[in-house]
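pasting input
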Amino acid sequence: MSLEGFEVAVVGAGPAGSAAALTLAREGVQVLLVERGTFPGSKNVFGGRIYSYALKRLLGERWKDAPVERFVRKEGITFMTADSSFSVEYESKDPTGSFTSIRSKFDKWLAEEAEKAGASLITDSRVDDLVLERGIVKGIIAGPDKIPTDVVIACDGTTTNLARKAGLASMLEPREVSIGMKDVIELPADKMEERLGLEPEEGAAHVFVGECSGGLRGGGFLYTNKDSLALGMVVGADDISTKKVPSHTLMDRLRNHRKVRRLIRGGKTIEYDAHMIPEAGPKMLTRPYTGGMLVAGDAAGHLLNNGYTFRGVDMAIVSGIAAAQTILEARKRKDYSAQSLQTYARRLREEPALKDMYTFSKVPRYLRNNRLYNVYPELVCNAAEAIYRVDGNRKRKIYKELRTQTKGKVSTISLIRDLLAGARTF
Amino acid sequence: MSEKQEDMSLDKRLALVSFNKDPEPFIVVDTNLCQQCEKKPCLYICPAQVYTWQDQLNYNTEGCMETGACLIVCHKIGAKAISWKYPSGGKGVSFRLG
């Protein structure tokens, strides 16, 4: 393939990159999509779920061709101590809003859609640097190849080498990233459905807080694939490092909890995956554009963990579309200067799906309160134990029981402060 | 029901992941700096335990899952000893079920 004559280079064939490349190619733009893995998705890991709206926006009715594992009918959360657990479960009337998937299938499929629209994909290619002329990005350097383009979209993930090369980011702080790990555990579909109380082909998503992270900032997750479970942990990099807990040992903590043990019993682990997750939000970059370049997806912090929903792929797709639309406008003006591309920042702020990142912008700070992981889950479980246990000793009213449980664990002031801050944050 | 509980270990886990070794050293550590490192965060952060300690820092890039987290903690908490980049195109880890 000749690497001349491309107007746009998109670095990284994940959801952001493929969505951007597809949107541009559809309008007749010459796009090169560059992927370092042997195929799109081969370097990517996530918990397991994609919100459908973003795909509908990108592909219309054809979103249904996506490689879906299971549509998510059940949402749940479990607070756990070493030997007890308190779970809440919600069963939705409409499961089509989100689905579980596997990135080696999903990302590959989405990149193929971009190719069908006319984008050129090259794999096995690591982009090492930008072509810079007087501070303006004029192309990319991949191994021995210098590829000149009018504009570049960096969708190169959390580590975003390219945003750093362009001076848009410095190195992230440990508290701004989490480490995610997961075991994929093979389990026959009927067994899985029986254990989780699911209809055939329907899926569940579940979050675990408390004992599994050993008091560290983070928690566990479970998603159902067709015939495997994706079971994992996400934990703050700062907590792991300073409290000296080897990250992988948390996987065993989760697996060995009675609640989880029952779900995975008889299953066979078939893969172990890991990935880094940016938690700082869009402020991880000074701005998501510079002369000749835009940044989208994880690389720009376009994802959202608000404690009960974990969104990355949908945000990446929407920001990829926004980046492409910005370029289509700039292309009419034949102007890819920083000034011309700054409309991208406005698009990101006005796009309703991405607005959620700003609405919930205080969440990361709230979630850094370690009481959420080492005090409250135990409190919830102990209160439930006291409420439900009848042993012939005098019972107290629920309110009094709750008051007793908090004694010595958290001061009334801290408790009220956390509750009020929570109400304002979420 | 007498279904067996699977016993996992990190070695077992890593044996399940496909790696295509990069002949180029994509992680290089100035291990002299590690001798003075108080916190040694790399030993804990890495989900593949690429870094281990026995009198000195040892590292084996072959199990690297390319999270990039070691670089951040080393430079912000540790001794700024790690240089890290992704393996060359097509090399390194390959996830089938990520």
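fyi Chain B touches chain A through 46 residues (CB under 8 Å).
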